[in-house]
Amino acid sequence: MLIKELSMLTGASIRSLRYYEEKHLIEPIRLENGYRSYNENVVERVKTIQFYLGLGLTTEDIAEIIDCPVSLNPKQPMCKAAYDLYKTKLSTVNKQIDLLQNIRMRLEERIRFFE
């Protein structure tokens, strides 16, 4: 399929798809006319990339884990790299929440001062 069709199937812009290609997250084959052609498996891969981006991961983070084999052990359903990355991201998010809650508290105090 061509890049326009992949864009329509995934909701990702053509610009985003080219960016994913630049970051080696997806790899098309080049047709003789220079057009990019993607196989059907790329649709699911792009959706996975979008999911990870929605979690706040960077494309560099995604590149580290997108090809991680999924474990058949239910107690360890993902590769260690993905697990470590999720733990790090959660810690970062928790720090951001703490910071925002502190800012919120200070803003509420200032508002009460003016009321």
Summary, kept brief:
With 115 residues, the chain is mainly α.
Give a topology summary.
Blueprint: H1 3-10, H2 14-22, E1 29-30, E2 36-37, H3 41-54, H4 59-65, H5 80-114
Antiparallel strand pairs: 1-2
Describe this structure as you would to a colleague:
This protein has 115 residues and is mainly alpha-helical. The protein folds into two domains: 1-65, Multidrug-efflux Transporter Regulator, Chain: A, Domain 2 (Orthogonal Bundle); 68-115. 63% of the residues lie in helices and 3% in strands. The protein contains five helices and two strands; from the N terminus they run H-H-E-E-H-H-H. The chain has a two-stranded antiparallel sheet with strand order 1-2. Strand 1 (29-30) and strand 2 (36-37) form a beta hairpin. The chain starts with a helix and ends with a helix. The model has no long low-confidence stretch (mean pLDDT 92).
The CATH architecture term of the largest domain is Orthogonal Bundle
Individual helix count: 5
Main β-sheet: number of strands, strand sense, barrel status? 2 strands, antiparallel
Distance between the termini: 61 Å
Protein structure class:
mainly alpha
Globular, elongated, flat, extended or rod-shaped: what is the shape? Answer: elongated
Count of discrete domains: 2
Order the strands across the largest sheet as they lie in space: 1-2
Mean pLDDT, rounded to whole units?
A: 92
CATH domain fold name of the largest domain: Multidrug-efflux Transporter Regulator, Chain: A, Domain 2
User: How many strands in all?
Assistant: 2
